[in-house]
Amino acid sequence: RELYIDGGNTKIGIAIDFAVDKEHRSLGPALKLQKAITMESRNDDIRIILGFPNKAADNIFRRVGYRVLGEVELWTKLLKTETKITRYVRIGFVAKLSSFFLDNILWLMDLKFRATNSRRFVTNILKICDERFNLLWKSARSNYNIIGVRSSVYLNWRYANCDTEQYFFFCLFDFLCND
């Protein structure tokens, strides 16, 4: 994978799905696996390996040489609240009733935003990314010290050309700018 770091693209690896069977979970095998991964990555010109360990694997990653670079932020907009509410409210009809009211509050907040925003937007759903994604990427990337590359080539490889799932791109366009 590539990250955009301080003005340029950097080839990185991502240590994911690090799983060791329970009977082999002593520090020795896990440590050897992670060391092998880091050593092999040097042969592939990978400058950085990112890991997102859970608490159980955190010590292993640190002993191999990983260090904390910063916090990862996930940005999402909740559209339906029921699945979140059922984690906390165990009574089914109370969860459904609560989510009905919360979903409508979210909808009203969106309506208020649209009514008070003088800009007009249009939406479109695309199956592939085009040059507009590259323009957006180039204008946005300098706002971050570290960010995953989001060019049309990457997005099409990761999502549009996926063989196991069908993905779409929900796009918001400024009506006045046509981009």
Describe the structure.
The two termini are 27 Å apart. The strands form two sheets. The protein has a four-stranded mixed β-sheet, covered by helices on one side. It is an alpha+beta fold. The protein is built from six helices and six strands. The radius of gyration is 22 Å and the shape is extended. Helix 1 crosses helix 2.
Please outline the helices and strands.
Elements: E1 2-5, E2 8-15, H1 27-43, E3 48-51, H2 55-64, H3 82-85, H4 92-116, E4 121-126, H5 131-140, E5 146-148, H6 152-160, E6 169-174
Parallel strand pairs: 2-3
Antiparallel strand pairs: 1-2, 1-5, 4-6
Helix pairs in contact: 1-2
Helix run count: 6
Helical content band: 40-55%
Biggest sheet, spatial arrangement of strands:
3-2-1-5
Percent of residues in beta strands? Answer: 15-25%
* C-alpha Rg (nearest Å): 22 Å
Distance separating the two termini:
27 Å
State the shape: extended
- Low-confidence runs (pLDDT<50, min 5 residues)? none
**Structure class:** alpha+beta
Q: What does the largest sheet look like?
A: 4 strands, mixed
**SSE order:** EEHEHHHEHEHE
Mean pLDDT: 84
Q: How many β-strand stretches?
A: 6
Notable characteristics:
single chain, 179 residues, alpha+beta, 4-stranded mixed sheet, two-stranded antiparallel sheet, 6 helices
Short characterization:
This protein is of the alpha+beta class.
